[in-house]
Amino acid sequence: MRLACAFIVLVVHCTTLGGYHDDMPYFGFDDTVGTYALAALFGMSGYVIVMSRLGESGFGSYLYRRVLRIYPGWILSLVMVAFLFGPLSLIVAGSESSYDWNSALGYISNNLLLALRQFGVEGTLTDVPVEGVWNFSAWTLFFEFGLWMGLGIMVSMFPRRWLTAAAWASLAVFIGIRGLAMAQGWIYDAHDTDARTDAPAWINLAEPTARLGMFFMAGVILFLMRDRIPLRRWLLAVSIAVCVVLGITGYFHLLAALPLTYALFYGACSKRFTTISNPNDLAYGVYIYAYPVTQLLAVWTIDHSMPEWLFIAIVAVATLPFAYFSWYVVERPAIRLGRKKKRPSTPPPDLEPARI
């Protein structure tokens, strides 16, 4: 399911990066389709990460494994952009300019801590529809890691009997911050990129944290209450209907965290999904490589136009080898390195992380 969401993000980015549309698709909803896929990714992340945290002996071992999960793949992707995608883009464009290696090294060093401080490499991506940006999809990684750390600290602070209440309180805080931002117009979306110019400085960090964090925390709540949540088709239908209505009316990113996460929870528990589960976790690799692959193809299509469907298909196929390479070369070895430390045995949860 996470891989499917990563491919949805890939597809919607292709529409603008390829120059086929001025904006990403809405399909009748208030926000772009990619934002809903992103919400689903964070909901699934919350479920899996709290399960990981509760299986650790302490915050230190949890931090160690979380760093090993996110950083090796991220560092490799930075190196690939700086030393492969960047130079190759000049060759594909037929540029006679020399490659700016200092800027390329800066791309690695400035983005090393997950926060995107340098979006591109000087002299590259100068004629594509979205210029100068090599991997804007990765903006979410900073908030993802921050939520991981916040959850780890929360589990350390509260005894297990109070953990569910703490998760509900966190969800309420996130909804409150998002609601305040919406009421004041302090939001940053595809409709108005200048919406936060008059907002207080703290909202620039708090609003995206809340917007993503509410879905993450809903996943945490679903895991903590999994033994008390019935799996009913009518509840699934109601959850989907609520999500659709909220998506159309513009309140999805305020009130849809729990119904969306329930729908994901139901789907992940379905036997139909367990029969197609993939032991190779390619979602992260697809997510962090799809954007640079798309930009590189966009450079080529400046002089070689093609139909939109073909552009999307080529990007999807071309991204997979990078995702596999990332998984086998750095991600899976790093995960196995983290598992060498002993961890306390815990009762197996109702839902295995591999299924989502």
From TrEMBL:
<feature type="transmembrane region" description="Helical">
    <location>
        <begin position="234"/>
        <end position="256"/>
    </location>
</feature>
<keyword id="KW-0812">Transmembrane</keyword>
<dbReference type="InterPro" id="IPR002656">
    <property type="entry name" value="Acyl_transf_3_dom"/>
</dbReference>
<feature type="transmembrane region" description="Helical">
    <location>
        <begin position="33"/>
        <end position="50"/>
    </location>
</feature>
<keyword id="KW-0012">Acyltransferase</keyword>
<dbReference type="GO" id="GO:0016747">
    <property type="term" value="F:acyltransferase activity, transferring groups other than amino-acyl groups"/>
</dbReference>
<protein>
    <submittedName>
        <fullName>Acyltransferase</fullName>
    </submittedName>
</protein>
<feature type="transmembrane region" description="Helical">
    <location>
        <begin position="208"/>
        <end position="225"/>
    </location>
</feature>
<dbReference type="Pfam" id="PF01757">
    <property type="entry name" value="Acyl_transf_3"/>
</dbReference>
<feature type="transmembrane region" description="Helical">
    <location>
        <begin position="165"/>
        <end position="188"/>
    </location>
</feature>
<keyword id="KW-1133">Transmembrane helix</keyword>
<feature type="transmembrane region" description="Helical">
    <location>
        <begin position="309"/>
        <end position="330"/>
    </location>
</feature>
<feature type="transmembrane region" description="Helical">
    <location>
        <begin position="136"/>
        <end position="158"/>
    </location>
</feature>
<feature type="domain" description="Acyltransferase 3">
    <location>
        <begin position="2"/>
        <end position="326"/>
    </location>
</feature>
<feature type="transmembrane region" description="Helical">
    <location>
        <begin position="71"/>
        <end position="93"/>
    </location>
</feature>
<keyword id="KW-0472">Membrane</keyword>
<keyword id="KW-0808">Transferase</keyword>
